[in-house]
Amino acid sequence: MKIISVTKDFIAHTLHTDTKKEVYECLKKNMFHFISQGIFDEAGNLKKTELLARLESVDGKTLFPSTFCPIIEANGLDNIFDQLVVDKAFEQIFYRKPSIPCSINVNPSTLNASFIQEVDRLYDFYLINPSQIIFEVLETEKIDDYDSFNKTLFELRKRGYKIAVDDFHPLGNHNALCIENLVEIDTVKIDGEYMKGLYNKTNTEWTVSDFLKNIENIKAKHPGIDIVVEKIEDEGMFLFFRNLLAHSHVENVSFQ
């Protein structure tokens, strides 16, 4: 397998605090693992799983995204980290052979021609069925050229991979990505904090009618698209949104 070196990039941009050194060592030695978070259908059956990366420090401590993501972002290593994660995800899927599709988080700027070449290399090495993999586009960056971005997504979907948009907020002014400009997507995951606020009625600006209207708009723009409601914390929240969406005849809904 190709080894991706982050040493030069990291040293060039990083102050040597203890936490940053820990993150550097994790990346340098490829010390991270995945935790799996299930995505369930309306009947509660496991449908997909999301692979979430966690770094492992040399002393065995787990570093969570709230610790390592700001360091990675501040040093411009988002794309390098994405590629490390994708490499390891292909490896894990190859050895564990899950029976359901697995989603992998990537930043929008990672999705370019070089990324496709790397994915093709991984496919040639592992021969994993592309339908087993969902590339989940993070709501982290604005896209300047949607034509080029959609072409990249098209190439991935042409190969059999699926595309999801993560943390989409039904109120458009909260989003970095403009979903109306995305034409090559299979799934939209609704922002979990929004769903929690809607369920707990903690924000008067967020109403059920607005939520349903925006879901209808997404479905109109992308017929047949899957909708995933994130951060379902208990059975009451699951039943509330399941019944609400079923009553409104919204199809292809999952819960995470």
Report on this model:
The chain is of the alpha/beta class and 256 residues long. The protein has a single domain, classed as TIM Barrel (Alpha-Beta Barrel). The protein is 43% helix and 20% strand. The protein has 9 helices and 9 strands. Strands 1, 2, 3, 4, 5, 6, 7, 8 and 9 form a 9-stranded mixed beta sheet that branches. Helix 9 (235-247) links the parallel strand 8 and strand 9. Helix 4 runs parallel beside helix 5 (113-126). The longest helix is centred in the middle third of the chain and has 19 residues, at 78-96. The radius of gyration is 19 Å and the shape is globular. Residues 1-16 have low confidence and may be disordered.
Write the layout of secondary structure elements.
Layout: H1 7-13, H2 18-28, E1 32-40, E2 46-56, E3 62-63, H3 65-74, H4 78-96, E4 102-106, H5 113-126, E5 133-137, H6 146-158, E6 162-168, E7 187-190, H7 192-200, H8 208-221, E8 226-229, H9 235-247, E9 253-255
Parallel strand pairs: 2-4, 4-5, 5-6, 6-7, 7-8, 8-9
Antiparallel strand pairs: 1-2, 2-3
Helix pairs in contact: 4-5
Short structural description:
This protein is α/β, with parallel strands linked by helices and 256 residues long. It is built from nine helices and nine strands. β4 (102-106), α5 (113-126) and β5 form a beta-alpha-beta unit.
